[in-house]
Amino acid sequence: MRHLIDPMDLSVEEIDEILDLADDIILDKEKYQEVCKHRKLATLFFEPSTRTRLSFEAAMMELGGNVLGFSSASSSSASKGESVADTIRVVGCYADIIAMRHPKEGAPFVASEYSPVPIINAGDGGHNHPTQTLTDLLTIRREKGRLNKLTVGFCGDLKFGRTVHSLIKALSRYDDIEYIMISPEELQIPEYIKKDVFEKKNIPYSEVRTMEEVMPKLDILYMTRVQRERFFNEADYIRLKDSFILNTEKLKTAKEDLTILHPLPRVNEISVKVDNDPRACYFRQALNGKFVRMALIMKLLGVNV
Ligand code: CP
Predict the structure, then answer these.
(1) What is the DSSP track for the chain?
(2) What is the overall mean pLDDT for the chain?
(3) CB of 264 closer than 6 A to ligand 1?
(4) Is any atom of ligand 1 closer than 6 Å to the C-beta of 123?
(5) What's the confidence (pLDDT) of residue 228?
(6) Given pLDDT bands bounded at 50, 70 and 90, which one contains residue 110?
(7) How confident is the model at residue 223 (pLDDT cuts 50, 70, 90)?
(8) 87 C-alpha vs ligand 1 centroid, how far in Å?
(9) Which of 51, 95, 141, 148 has the lowest tally of Cβ within 10 angstroms?
């Protein structure tokens, strides 16, 4: 039985397999519409979500399976004090696979220790979000045709941004990626990512404080939201929330084939006027999330066509 807790749980070859399968699902959806008939996905979301939960549910439905679950801790018995371990043991009696989001880092790993069925980490605190990473990799590969030889700018909340941490780890296995970190000092990339990923693998990276100074170099601009829910102090959030706002003016110096990504939700870090720019890929990215989750469910359930 396989779980997906950290993006590095999958080898590069397995990631290629999942992305290839997602591409095939996009080309021929009918072929897959009954492959998970009589299988059940449980979505256990102890933290809010729109894209991840609903794309998982849509993914299972499009594979012919069924879904059950809860969308907040308050509507589950966690509110009565039930532990993650007990919840998982019980839900494992009702479902064949579980996607779980939790505000506590490591909670999906704990779940995987007790689960009788595969666990998918759908986001744990500021730590990891491996299915967003699969979504991002599929989108980059579909937009750029490759996952190497890219200059990638990560912009915004790089401290708490689990999508950023997961994507950096995943990309570190591909060749010739130049990493540019664009953030205020207070929200810079954590030391453990610098040490465990960049320094360990001798990967060069740079840190800058404005997006304007690097915009002409970028192949990918990965925007993120400053996450109010991760701050201990509202004053700090207010001070930092508008640090970076991408608008049409700032895009004037960007490459014509720049790919603008954002895991969403957006607050105001990308002006809505940018949405009409063909380089804005974030809604296509959200759609890709459903197809890559279909492929992942199939892989973890051992379903072949
Ligand atoms: N990208 C992402 O995780 O979005 P949700 O929080 O809406 O699931």
Answers:
(1) ---BSSGGGS-HHHHHHHHHHHHHHHH-GGGGTTTTTT-EEEEEESS--SHHHHHHHHHHHHTT-EEEEESSGGGSGGGGT--HHHHHHHHHHH-SEEEEEESSTTHHHHHHHH-SS-EEEEEETTTB-HHHHHHHHHHHHHHHS-SSSEEEEEES-TTT-HHHHHHHHHHTTSSSEEEEEE--GGGPPPHHHIIIIIITTT--EEEES-STTTGGG-SEEEE----GGG-S-HHHHHHHTTS--B-TTGGGGS-TT-EEE--S--SSSB-GGGGGSTTB-HHHHHHHHHHHHHHHHHHHHT---
(2) 96
(3) yes
(4) yes
(5) 76
(6) very high
(7) very high
(8) 23
(9) 148
